[in-house]
Amino acid sequence: MPEKKKGTRQQARSSSSTSTPKAKSHAKSRTSKSQERKKKEKESGGCLWKILLVVLILLLAFGGGYIYYLFHSGKKAAENAYVENSRTKSELRDESVQPLTDNISIMIVGIDDSEKRSQGEGNSRSDALLVATLNNKDKSIKLVSIPRDSYVYIPTVGYKDKITHAHAYGGIDATRETVEGLLNVPIDYYFRVNFDAFIEIVDALGGVTVDVPYEINELDENDKRTVHLMPGTQEVNGREALALARTRHQDSDVERGKRQQMILEAIASKATSVTSFTKYDKVLAAVGNNMQTDMTFDEMKSLFAYLQNGMPDIDSLSLKGSDDMSSGIYYYLLQDDSLLETRQTLQKHLGLTIDTKLNLSEDEEVIEEPTTKQNTGFQSNYNSSGSGN
Question: Who's near 366: CB < 8 A, 6+ residues apart?
Answer without folding.
Answer: none
